[in-house]
C-alpha cells in the first residue's frame, strides 16, 4: 500500500508539473467553420489587421499559425490549427496562452470563471462572426477540368502580399489602358492575372497583370510594360462571384478539388476578370474565371 501511495503521489506531482509548466496552452477554444483552411487563414489575416495591438501572423512549419494580441498589459498568443473535414467545413482549434500570467491562469481556471477565459471566448466569437460575414460576400462554383485559353498579352509585373493583389491591378489599369488606346491595339478578351509564384508561408505573390491583345506591329515599347504569350494548357476551373480583393478564395477551392480528384496541379492560378470594379454594382454579380493548371506527365 505504501508503494502504491508513493507511485500515485509521483504521478500526481508529474501531472501537476506538466499542467503548470509544460502544457503548451493555458486554454483551448474549438469550433467548426464552413470554410476551407486557406480561406480561414486569409480571413484571419484581415481580422488581425483590425485588432488593436496586433502583430503579423506567423506561419509555423507544421502548418499551424500564430497570432499575438495585446489586451491591457498582457500579451496573448493564439496558436491556430485548422484542418479540413470536407470541402466546405474545417475544424478550428485555437490554443491560447497569456505570456505574462500563464501560471496564475492555470491555477485559477479549474476553479473560477476568469477574465482570461471570458476574453478568450469572446475574442474567438468575434472572429467567427467576422468569418461568417465574409463568407456571405462571395460565391465559388467549381466547374472541373477545362482548357486554359492561349492569347498574346500586354503585361506589367508585380510583387505583392496576397491580400494586396487587387491594389496592384488597380495601379496598372490606367497604364495599360493608355498604351492600348494610344496605339489603337485591339483587345482579345478581359484583363487577367497570371501568377508566377505563390508563397503561402510568407503570404506573398509575384504575378503578371495582363490585357489580352491581338499581336500588332504597333506595340509601343515601355519601361514597365512587356509583351508575351499565355499558352493554353489543361486546367481545373472555378467561377468566383465577389469582390476581386478576395478572388484568391477560389484558389483554395481548386486545390481542395484537385486533392479530392487525385490531380497534380501547378499552384500558379490564372484569373480572368469580367467586370470593371470602378463601375460599382452588386459585387456578387462580379465574375472571375479562375484556372489552376494541371501538371503534365513530363513535369
From TrEMBL:
<dbReference type="InterPro" id="IPR011256">
    <property type="entry name" value="Reg_factor_effector_dom_sf"/>
</dbReference>
<dbReference type="InterPro" id="IPR029442">
    <property type="entry name" value="GyrI-like"/>
</dbReference>
<feature type="transmembrane region" description="Helical">
    <location>
        <begin position="6"/>
        <end position="22"/>
    </location>
</feature>
<keyword id="KW-1133">Transmembrane helix</keyword>
<protein>
    <submittedName>
        <fullName>Effector-binding domain-containing protein</fullName>
    </submittedName>
</protein>
<keyword id="KW-0472">Membrane</keyword>
<keyword id="KW-0812">Transmembrane</keyword>
<dbReference type="Pfam" id="PF06445">
    <property type="entry name" value="GyrI-like"/>
</dbReference>
<feature type="domain" description="GyrI-like small molecule binding">
    <location>
        <begin position="170"/>
        <end position="295"/>
    </location>
</feature>
